[in-house]
Amino acid sequence: MIVPGSVSQSLAAALAERLNEPLARVEQERFPDGELLVSVSEVPDRAILVASTVSSDAHIELLQLQDAVTGADEVITVIPYMGYARQDRAFESGEPVSARAVARAISTGTDRVLTVNPHETVVCEYFDVPAEPIDAASRLATPLPDDLQDPLFLAPDESARSLAETVRDTYGIGEIDHFEKTRLSGSEVDVAPGDVDVEGRDAVLVDDMIATGATMSEVVTQLTARDVDRVYGTCVHPLLTGTARTQLARAGVDAVFATDTVERPASTVSAAPAIAENL
Ligand code: R5P
């Protein structure tokens, strides 16, 4: 039985259909002091929890869902988007490894964890139960137009290059390049282009996530200045906080395509097939 988190409704429904599993009815209420309470209609033998941890509330909700199905023979926790994964080490003295802290908490209520394109796969080692990363990047080739001209698949930094390769391989044709990125603050980045000529070509940008949109907007701006033709922004996790989507539009992006690990208007493809294969 699929037990859906409140922010992963579409993905949980898609997964239930794909796996031919029933969906649990989950009710949620909030007490006057702000605390959450979830309840699950029944405790199945095998519970597959599907809940992105996009916020602190979503983390608490997941821990409550796990506790609510304590009587199940097997509990599998699918975290389509794992929040706090970017703090996968202490960057300054005195900082926590937040990814490790949340992984430990989540481990207490499950037999196994699956998480989609975590920022770095090292976070899977922070769980105290078997945890596997799932790669849903190939899904991002599906919504791209069929007639891309001399396409260039670009990553904003070297660490996202393998995602760009996956999307290119699935699309079938295209060159790969990556920018060099320096992060100046949480919402400002500096990107330096590679040597590949972009004039008159179609470009597909690929990243694991778009959060503030600073990274991808800066890349789009630079490509537009170098006379790129069409430019598409793609990512697995479309957090798209605040003004991210309009920043991208102002920079000149033609469309943004993403998966449903975070449910947004840009979530035009589902990560469900990639998750189902691993269940
Ligand atoms: C960072 O290394 C990630 O891969 C993304 O590039 C980054 O998190 C995107 O964040 P933003 O949209 O805020 O620039």
Shape: globular
What is bound: which ligands? ribose-5-phosphate
CA radius of gyration is 19 Å
Let me know the largest β-sheet. Answer: 6 strands, parallel
Low-confidence stretches: none
Q: Tell me the β content.
A: 25-35%
Could you describe the 3D structure shown?
The chain contains 7 helices and 15 strands. Helices cover 26% and strands 27% of the residues. Strand 5, helix 3 (98-107) and strand 6 form a beta-alpha-beta unit. It is α/β, with parallel strands linked by helices and 279 residues long. The two termini are 12 Å apart. The chain has helices at residues 9-19, 56-68, 98-107, 161-171, 214-225, 244-251, 272-278, and strands at 2-4, 26-30, 36-40, 46-50, 74-79, 112-116, 131-134, 152-155, 175-178, 180-185, 188-192, 203-210, 231-238, 255-259, 267-269. It is globular. A 6-stranded parallel β-sheet has the order 9-8-12-13-14-15, with helices on both faces.
Give a brief description.
Helix content is 26%, strand content 27%.
List keywords for this structure.
single chain, 279 residues, alpha/beta, 6-stranded parallel sheet, 5-stranded parallel sheet, 7 helices, globular, binds ribose-5-phosphate
Summarize the SSE layout with pairings:
Blueprint: E1 2-4, H1 9-19, E2 26-30, E3 36-40, E4 46-50, H2 56-68, E5 74-79, H3 98-107, E6 112-116, E7 131-134, E8 152-155, H4 161-171, E9 175-178, E10 180-185, E11 188-192, E12 203-210, H5 214-225, E13 231-238, H6 244-251, E14 255-259, E15 267-269, H7 272-278
Parallel strand pairs: 1-4, 4-5, 5-6, 6-7, 8-9, 8-12, 12-13, 13-14, 14-15
Antiparallel strand pairs: 2-3, 10-11
Helix pairs in contact: 1-7, 5-6
The chain binds ribose-5-phosphate.
